[in-house]
Amino acid sequence: MSETTTRRAVKASSAQHDIRIAYIGGGSRVWARALFKDLALCRKLTGRIALYDIDLSAARRNVGVAKEIFSHPQAQTSFKVSAVSSVDKALKGADFVVMSILPGPMQMFANDLDIPAKYGIFQAVGDTTGPGGISRALRCVPDYFAYGQQIMEHCPDAWVINYTNPMTLCTAALYAASPEIKAFGCCHEVFGTQARLAGLVEQYLGQRKPPRHEIEVDVSGVNHFTFVTEAHWQGVDLFPLIARHINKRGFFADRTADAVKQKEEGHWFRSQGLIAYDFFRRFGALGAAGDRHLAEFVPWYLTSEENLHRWGAILTPSSYRLGSWKEKDAAVAATIKATKAAKKSKKRAAAGLKLKRSGEEGLQMMLALLGDKPLDTNVNIPNRGQAPDLPLGAVVETNAAFRLDRVTPLVANPMPPLVTGLVNRVIDVQQATLEAAILRDRDQAFAALLSDPLVNIPTDKAWAMFNELLKANKAALKGWKI
Amino acid sequence: MSETTTRRAVKASSAQHDIRIAYIGGGSRVWARALFKDLALCRKLTGRIALYDIDLSAARRNVGVAKEIFSHPQAQTSFKVSAVSSVDKALKGADFVVMSILPGPMQMFANDLDIPAKYGIFQAVGDTTGPGGISRALRCVPDYFAYGQQIMEHCPDAWVINYTNPMTLCTAALYAASPEIKAFGCCHEVFGTQARLAGLVEQYLGQRKPPRHEIEVDVSGVNHFTFVTEAHWQGVDLFPLIARHINKRGFFADRTADAVKQKEEGHWFRSQGLIAYDFFRRFGALGAAGDRHLAEFVPWYLTSEENLHRWGAILTPSSYRLGSWKEKDAAVAATIKATKAAKKSKKRAAAGLKLKRSGEEGLQMMLALLGDKPLDTNVNIPNRGQAPDLPLGAVVETNAAFRLDRVTPLVANPMPPLVTGLVNRVIDVQQATLEAAILRDRDQAFAALLSDPLVNIPTDKAWAMFNELLKANKAALKGWKI
Amino acid sequence: MSETTTRRAVKASSAQHDIRIAYIGGGSRVWARALFKDLALCRKLTGRIALYDIDLSAARRNVGVAKEIFSHPQAQTSFKVSAVSSVDKALKGADFVVMSILPGPMQMFANDLDIPAKYGIFQAVGDTTGPGGISRALRCVPDYFAYGQQIMEHCPDAWVINYTNPMTLCTAALYAASPEIKAFGCCHEVFGTQARLAGLVEQYLGQRKPPRHEIEVDVSGVNHFTFVTEAHWQGVDLFPLIARHINKRGFFADRTADAVKQKEEGHWFRSQGLIAYDFFRRFGALGAAGDRHLAEFVPWYLTSEENLHRWGAILTPSSYRLGSWKEKDAAVAATIKATKAAKKSKKRAAAGLKLKRSGEEGLQMMLALLGDKPLDTNVNIPNRGQAPDLPLGAVVETNAAFRLDRVTPLVANPMPPLVTGLVNRVIDVQQATLEAAILRDRDQAFAALLSDPLVNIPTDKAWAMFNELLKANKAALKGWKI
Amino acid sequence: MSETTTRRAVKASSAQHDIRIAYIGGGSRVWARALFKDLALCRKLTGRIALYDIDLSAARRNVGVAKEIFSHPQAQTSFKVSAVSSVDKALKGADFVVMSILPGPMQMFANDLDIPAKYGIFQAVGDTTGPGGISRALRCVPDYFAYGQQIMEHCPDAWVINYTNPMTLCTAALYAASPEIKAFGCCHEVFGTQARLAGLVEQYLGQRKPPRHEIEVDVSGVNHFTFVTEAHWQGVDLFPLIARHINKRGFFADRTADAVKQKEEGHWFRSQGLIAYDFFRRFGALGAAGDRHLAEFVPWYLTSEENLHRWGAILTPSSYRLGSWKEKDAAVAATIKATKAAKKSKKRAAAGLKLKRSGEEGLQMMLALLGDKPLDTNVNIPNRGQAPDLPLGAVVETNAAFRLDRVTPLVANPMPPLVTGLVNRVIDVQQATLEAAILRDRDQAFAALLSDPLVNIPTDKAWAMFNELLKANKAALKGWKI
User: Fold this and answer.
1) Chain C within 8 Å of D82 (Cβ-Cβ)?
2) Minimum Cα–Cα distance from B404: chain A residue
């Protein structure tokens, strides 16, 4: 067990909460580090963080990163961060459990994209839905199910915050382990939609662009396939603005040129929202996730790479996934090195570590759950009535009120019926996948895959693709006969 | 049309909202005057109030009262208050419609109590449920249905705040007129429960008694028959405290002596909460209204006046209803007179008008709807999913989030199944009564009455009682053949 | 193990089914003997019957009775009947399991009537609902739950026919043991309603009275609280006839005189159907059980013995229950003796055994399930959609199609909404009672009792009554702390 | 008005029902003539048939055909058949209304196939679902809605039997006109599945092939997309047989050769059931319609003509549709001519009219509704609970009991959840199409089309295709702005 103690003395004020965080996937290159920074910039919290990762060395590496972050001159607080060798050790006594794992080695993510592509099924992201998302779910659902059981054993009162995709199925697996678990899934995709609407406020109302959280949206659906059914800014209905915006001549014109440029430049995550607006035009509800996600839930935009380009969006290639993985580590190592060097030389190098808020809401959620500032935001939890047009019990994404030790869903508007139909279809596939993954049921897993909106190929070919995916996942599919 | 202009000049600040309020039942002795005072003490609002009442002279009398209130030295703002001769005049241009009417003359309220009593059915209040409540509903539902239509014609964007009982059926009648209406019903009964729980915090946690709004309750049911399924204060679960409290030796002992004393002293509205706690003991959910209300929804506490006394609660006699009606007017007249005299003599007489907040939340709701401070509180609106164990569409009481031009329900916990059963039974009777009242369907009205939990008498006698009630209501039952 | 072989040689025709019947409650004085006679008169069946009873001597007595029946000159077939000492022995290899037990000794049935009566709660029958029915359910539900498990172990493909009351809860307990069980509950109460309607055909249509099965009824509800929502004879709608019938002057006049006479004469099971018609008058659906049963599900007819008399119905006294029990045995013994004597003397004595069809449908159901004549009739099984206005999963009574190895429910009309409300209330109590009985949960059992429509007494008194009942049942309540 | 009287004297026996049939689409080349023959061969019925058709000459032609049929030597009864010039005349006094129309001229049917094909969407049939089915629905739903209203005006007690496709939407349009209408839709596709299973009985049980009605199936879904969830023959479970059958080596081998041959020979309606079995293999429920229909409801089999051929099924080309239309008329004319000639020459020519039962169940349904032989069979009516896993109110296909003046649905098994999902998706599209067709809502019609399982093309192209279809339908789309 490696451990770090921050140097700066922290004076515990009565307002400062002393908490324990268990981090499952504590070797995480992105989310864990973002959390450290967010925590470092918040004087209201202090305590301990236990990092667990199946790759203990990655967790240890993050202990080093954390050390630098909490000792940074801008840091407002410090946490004791340690890497632990078992989940149980991490969980004991935890107030919060943060989960962000990589389901299987990065090569498997690459397979999730490349194998379906051979069969003519292209995915822009591939981590949520479609053959890629289902393949990924088969790998991680059993782990999440087991983590859920361990959480209920060691820290049943802890709040569990999940960042891993497939978000819906990971969260659902926790609730499958115990309906009593206090878990929720967080996603920032809706924030992007709010930001886009804030742009319309600026453009059409002659106002300074408001911060995204001022855009009040009623949102419903499942993660990455959510819809805004109502949007206001300071009481102004934004739907007429959207209508005006998209009715402009040429608005829906072909954006292949943009996409091609983007691809050349490697801006893999950019999209223009044209698909989100196409949903608005065709179904009356605004897609509330990035176009690359939205496109994966329906059979219309990913019929070919060219078709996706037409909407100004691009595929993230598996090569990028494999490459970025290594680059991230290298970049962080370089930053840490530069930071240490700078400290030694008593000056801050340009290349050194910078503290900056991540824009994620995990920290605000924690604060609200600790009784600090109330927060109303979108979240993924089982449907208790908040999405009255979706099945009870399914993990859905709507707004909820975060208060002291409580997350209470706000009732969402029903979506337009055909959109509800599209979402229900996705939920059907998710429920079947969840069961198949827990029971290791090959036939049901295939039936689920076949029912996925992206699988519009002959059943024979789908069966071949499915088995190829299973084989590629073999090492991660414990308990399966492959 | 009589009109008043307040003397004090009001400087409209940018933060001050200029609103129009239509008050239906503007001759109201209690609610209208409470609202005037609450408004007078709130510097954030100004504007106009149009009072409509079928008794125009009562509305005019309130114009006089308002004049004194808004010219009171403590007043922070002023409103132009006028009495108008038609609903339409009141509604045109309204931002808010406040409704508090008396369904039929006070003598009919007396009949609602006295006629059932002849048949052995006693009601502690008689304005919500039971034969009295149904009789009252038959009188006022058609009016509310018509008001709903007029509101949709003249001010469809206005928020409609209802205070009239039967709360559920009046609110439901507005929605029967149009599902698009922006109406809700307000009730303070839950506040009393919060205050009682605040007392437990003081008693058992050694804290100063917290203000009632610090007690966070999850509430569900129908108005006056609501249940707390979860209660916290600063994260402390209050249910174990309740259990401890009621398990005290003698807690449920006979309280007849208290009741008799209360009756002698004429403290008609007091109750000790013993029935609310009896629900907790027997069903696991705390009754969240006064005992006199709760007792009317089940057949166990009102089998006789003595039985009610045993729980430390008493019947409000019809004689009191008739008497208080006149007394209230007299008291206000005296106050106004004293106030005017005092003003003349440049000093404030002891007997003069005092400005004091009512404790009602109508004003805070208005402010929240105007985009001011957000408010989460209990409210009566149609079930869109917030009470997943009750029928969709039925007017239920749960918490909701009041925000700028929006009321979004928060999803309530399900109640214990047998309590859900008790509430569903009440909802069945309410739905049937609503239809019967609108359609003037005598048979269905009787079938609804027969299904009421208080009607445990032979069907022949119930039929006789029903017809006696109809006859007593004849003047108020337009369109009925009686 | 005692066994009997019938003397007459039975020529097995290809059309004759050779079946094994397990009879749980095989000492049954009424149902078992009726079944023997029905079987004896049906040449299509032969085989073996194993009688199990906790009172082995009673089962043995029935072996003797069976011997006489199957050797009767009118008998068309024979069965080998034996008494077995364990349930398992009875069940092994069974094609049908017939269940008709007495829940607890007869004295407990007497208590079920007498204890509530002390608290002012009168029951006409006391075996289905109300305090008596709940008390009885607490005794027998755990046994049925265990029988269900044993059936699934020993003869999972057998059809289980239940005759025991409380019908709904006994059947529900079997399904609680396993949702895969092929069980149903039979009741003849609807037959009486059909017969009554056949009388109207005769009276108003100038036809010979048709047999009851020609009256086609759409029926829904729970056993003994069922409602006819539509009735036809040869395409003629009978509802206008009912309306005509009950609108006759004096139809609903006081029938106390009849009741008093009936009581004096000891015609305990007779009733005039006036309560069934009162439901029709008040709610628009015809009660489809005897008045003595219907009266127990609502609070209007059993407020006193006198009130019940007013409707021409009477209470069955506990003394009769105790007495008849002994008389039945004596009567059968005498018959058997006379039969034997007659056989010896080669002539049939007037007092000897007579074979006569029982009018029950158990045999026809068996035949239909064996692929013989199809049968559409009313039956008690879990709601799979057949009663769309009642909760899924609850045991309901509607029509169903009996075919070869299948019972498929026919979708019933929805009942009038207020009747649905009355039935739902009963279902709520039943579900809570079922759980309480299986879990031995005293608090929930009391909460269920309190929610019963007949319990309109103060909660303190109800609690006392409940505990008195528990004590009286002590010997039968295994696993309870009393 | 042209009229025919049959020559043979019919002796009205007491058992013979004298009925009036209104035939909407009375010029029908296939269904009307089949009905005449079925009627002619049934001695239990006589009466009048009024033929209405928007093509009066076609109706008149059928009067001539009917004349020959009912005067045929084998005819057992006769009907007076006339052609009438308005729907109202046909409907007045009708006991039965039979509906089989052609929605738009045959050229429009051809367009329904050819236009989507240009966009890469192939349909094997094109009359039920997919772009072709939706296009057809837009044409005929308004007519059916209007017919429904006229039926309720002129003969509200008549039973309405629909044969027109799209079956579900035509039937739904009648119920949209009035929920009180007594309408149902008939389809013989399930019969084919029964026949196929009868073949398995022969093949595997060593029995003579039983008639198809002996195969008892539990069926659920929507017309042409129905599933067998359970199948028995004389109590033998046929599902293990199906499993055995399809597990044979090579069973699912490529059947392109067969398909190509079939296509060359013009056997347009043949299929081998391989797709039905593929559903069984992948989802656990047997498709219960012809493969050409089943393939149209999912995106897997019609990705290309070649892919369909692989399953041994072929596309029906629009050229065949156009050609057969004319051929049918010619063939009938020839037959009638030959028949007349034969009659004249007192001998029956080989080419003359032959009376033969159609295999349709319309006649048996009529007989059952008239109180004759009860019939349990599959039928299309709104879901009242019979398909508990599908939305209430949607027109579904399950079994139902036909009895005297009643059709009572039998509760179907739930389908496997993923199959329910596939069916729900179709229902969503149908509901949206129904509304769009009645309201002439172009946007909703397109949104429905886009949601159809066959529409897996870019949204731009789908929009172009949709508008091309609208234009091609212009003459038939009254009230649309095109």
Assistant:
1) no
2) A235
Q: Is pTM beyond 0.80 here?
A: yes
CA-angle at A256, arms to A251 and A260, nearest 5°: 140
What mean pLDDT comes out for the span B324-339? 80
Q: Are D430 and D168 in contact (CB under 8 A)?
A: yes
Q: Is A8 helix (H, G, I), strand (E, B) or coil?
A: coil
- Structure confidence at residue D273 as a pLDDT band (50, 70, 90): very high
Q: Give the Cα separation of A32 and A39 in Å (integer).
A: 10
CA dist A133 → A296, A440, D71 (Å):
10, 16, 68
- Catalytic residue chosen out of the listed positions C72, C154, C188, C224: C188
Contacts of A405 in chain B (CB under 8 A): 232, 235
- Phi and psi angles of residue C268, each rounded to the nearest 5 degrees, phi first: -65, -25
In 3D, which of D197, D232, D202, D230 has the Cα closest to residue D212?
D197
Q: Which residues of D touch A414 (CB under 8 A)?
A: none
pLDDT tens for D302-346 read 999 999 999 999 999 999 999 887 787 788 788 778 878 877 776
C5 confidence band (pLDDT: 50, 70, 90): very low
The bridge status of strand C225-233 relative to strand C286-287 is antiparallel
Between chain C and chain D, how many beta carbons pairs sit less than 8 Å apart? 61
Rounded to whole angstroms, what are the CA distances from B389 to B414, B423, C144, C280, C429?
Answer: 6, 10, 30, 30, 16
Picking from C14-23, D132-141, D145-154, D291-300, which range would have the lowest pLDDT averaged per residue?
C14-23
DSSP C218-240: EEEEETTEEEEEEEEETTEE-HH
Which chains does chain A touch, 3 or more C-beta pairs < 8 A?
B, D
Q: Please tell me whether the interface predicted TM-score (ipTM) of this complex is above 0.95.
A: no
Which residues of chain B neighbour C447 with C-beta distances below 8 Å?
A: 282-283, 416, 418
pLDDT tens digits, C239-259: 999 999 999 999 999 999 999
Residue D413 DSSP class: P
Average pLDDT for residues C122-139, to the nearest whole number?
98
Contact C391/D at CB under 8 A: no
pLDDT at C480 over 80: yes
DSSP B113-180: HHHHHHTT---SS-SSSHHHHHHHHHHHHHHHHHHHHHHHHH-TTSEEEE--SSHHHHHHHHHHH-TT
Which residues are registered as beta bridge partners of B377?
A: B400
Angle between the N-to-C axes of helices B362-369 and B31-40, in degrees from 0 to 180, rounded to the nearest 10: 60
pLDDT digits (tens, 9 = 90+) for B208-260: 999 999 999 999 999 999 999 999 999 999 999 999 999 999 999 999 999 99
Distance, C-alpha B184 to centroid of its chain: 11
User: Which of B175, B137, B39 has the alpha carbon at shortest distance from B436?
Assistant: B137
Q: Is the CB of C411 less than 8 angstroms away from the CB of D406?
A: no
Q: Tokens in use for D247?
A: 């597990």
Give residue A347's pLDDT.
60
Report CA Rg, chain B: 22
The nearest alpha carbon in chain A to D457 belongs to A300
Return the number of other C-beta atoms located less than 10 Å from residue D155's C-beta: 22
The pLDDT tens digits of the residues spanning C263-314 come to 999 999 888 999 999 999 999 999 999 999 999 999 999 999 999 999 999 9
Half-sphere exposure of D45 (CA within 13 A, CB side): 29
C205 near C184, Cβ under 8 Å?
Answer: no
Give the span between the Cα atoms of C181 and C94, in whole angstroms: 14
**Structural contact between residues D160 and D95, judged by C-beta atoms closer than 8 angstroms:** no
Strand boundaries in D85-155, DSSP class E: 96-99
d(CA B81, CA B65): 10
Q: What is the pLDDT of residue D339?
A: 78
Main-chain dihedrals φ then ψ at residue B243, nearest 5 degrees: -60, -45
Residue count (chain B): 482
Distance separating alpha carbons of residues A315 and A318, to the nearest angstrom: 9
